[in-house]
Specification:
The chain is mainly beta. It is built from two helices and 19 strands. The longest helix has 20 residues. It starts with a helix and ends with a strand. The relative contact order is 0.18.
Length: 417
């Protein structure tokens, strides 16, 4: 049985690693978050499987990116890593009308399905003796800039006339160093310093026999921010967590390309200010013969404070994100986990992502392996990404209907001794 489990684990991890290698890095986002990205949620599979919660229980090096106070829960020395694959489907449809100009329905004109991969890694050490606090280092994605889109353009006679393509790559990544200390029997405090780097490329092109339109922007920027956290044992059955992530000021350059000039001679200074966020989490352990834990997190992000020095017309919405999860451990020790996530968009708070999550895990000698999955959906309205005039057509009236769905799978491996 043990040999079978080892073989199954090796096969699954190698499959996910291969998918990550042949796909883009990090998680996936859609055009609706262009060009400032989608905030990365869960960093390990246990958190993912419980709706993305973790403000109270992220007891590995990834606590640096969630709640640094949880770092003090490391028993001695721990190494943790996670790998994920995300499948994103997007369906775009335009409204069509009858001869009396009455609305009939929507007609799909572009369907895209893409795989994205990602990984994170961290180490932490708890010094049981002496005044030295628990320390840790972790590397992980923070915001994702990626998006892929392909549309085949045909005329009224269904003859091929061109392609419309978007390829966005990169994101903002963090290297976090931090510490945590159990200051009393019931209170843990922690802090982390995050070194941020943003590196990406945004390209949009339309072409038939020749290139009709081409725009490309290459971005490189750096910055820092901090995470502060606290975790309190209110009673034997209730724990509370609170964490604060400060604003991040990123400075760098953006090199601009166009159809008329393919050299990177045109550039501008890039100044971005990503907003601060505050999150609170609660864990409740009910009286039960079988171990059960209920988790609920709420996070507020002040997106109305986001700034781009090159665009002073931005008006983003503040976002309240809610997530919840349950972990139920059976007699054999294998946990069953499920949860939910509700996340409005900062570009339009009426557009929300709703997702359900699930997962399990088991221990193998000094290793602990967790598996998590997520199924989510979102729909919204948007203008045509490429003007019909590129191919001599007439611009459509009304906004297109866009429906997105995602399927995420993640494996985390934690080694503590």
């Amino acid at each position: 049985m043990m040999v079978f489990l080892k073989g199954l684990l090796l096969l699954l991890v190698l499959s996910l690693l291969a998918a990550c290698f042949f796909s883009n890095e990090s998680a996936a986002f859609t055009y609706f978050s262009y060009p400032y990205g989608e905030k990365i949620g869960s960093l390990d599979a246990r958190s993912l499987s419980m709706g993305g919660t973790g403000v109270v229980f992220q007891n590995n090096a990834f606590a640096l990116g969630v709640n640094p106070a949880c770092l003090s829960e490391i028993k001695n020395f721990g190494v943790t890593s996670s790998v994920q694959v995300v499948k994103v489907d997007e369906d775009r449809a335009f409204p069509y009308h009858d001869s009396f100009d009455s609305f009939v329905g929507f007609n799909t004109y572009a369907m895209n399905s893409h795989l994205y991969g990602g990984y994170a890694f961290g180490v932490a050490k708890n010094f049981d003796q002496g005044p030295i606090p628990t320390i840790g280092v972790a590397g992980y994605p923070v915001y994702d800039w990626k998006y892929q889109y392909h549309e085949e353009v045909r005329d009224d006679n269904d003859l091929f006339v061109g392609n419309n393509i978007m390829e966005h790559r990169g994101g903002i990544y963090a290297i976090s160093v931090g510490l945590a200390e159990k200051v009393t029997s019931w209170l843990n405090l922690g802090a982390a310093l995050n070194f941020l780097n943003g590196d990406g490329q945004f390209e949009s092109k339309a072409f038939g026999d020749t290139i009709i339109a081409l725009d490309r922007q290459e971005v490189d920027c750096d910055g820092m921010n901090v995470n502060l956290g606290a975790m309190a044992q209110i009673s034997p059955r209730i724990r509370l967590g609170l964490t604060y992530r400060s604003e991040a000021n990123l400075d760098g350059t953006a090199k601009l390309f166009s159809k008329s000039s393919l050299s990177p001679d045109s550039s501008r200074k890039l100044e971005l200010t990503y907003p601060y966020s505050i999150a609170m989490g609660v864990e409740y352990r009910p009286r039960n013969d079988l171990t059960a834990r209920l988790h609920f997190d709420v996070e507020f992000t002040k997106w109305s404070h986001f700034q781009d020095a090159a665009n002073d017309t931005l008006e983003f919405d503040d976002v309240w994100q809610f997530s919840g999860g349950l972990e139920h451990r059976f007699f054999l020790g294998y946990p069953f986990r499920f949860g939910f996530r509700y996340q409005p968009s900062y570009q339009d708070k009426e557009v929300t992502t709703t997702a359900v999550t699930f997962g399990t895990g088991f221990s193998l000698e000094k290793f602990h392996i967790d598996f998590g999955g997520e199924v989510g959906t979102r729909s919204w309205r948007w203008t045509d990404l490429f003007p019909e005039s590129y191919y001599g057509g007439v611009e459509r009236e009304g906004k297109d209907k866009v429906k997105e769905s995602l399927l995420r799978a993640m494996v985390s491996i934690d080694y503590q001794f």
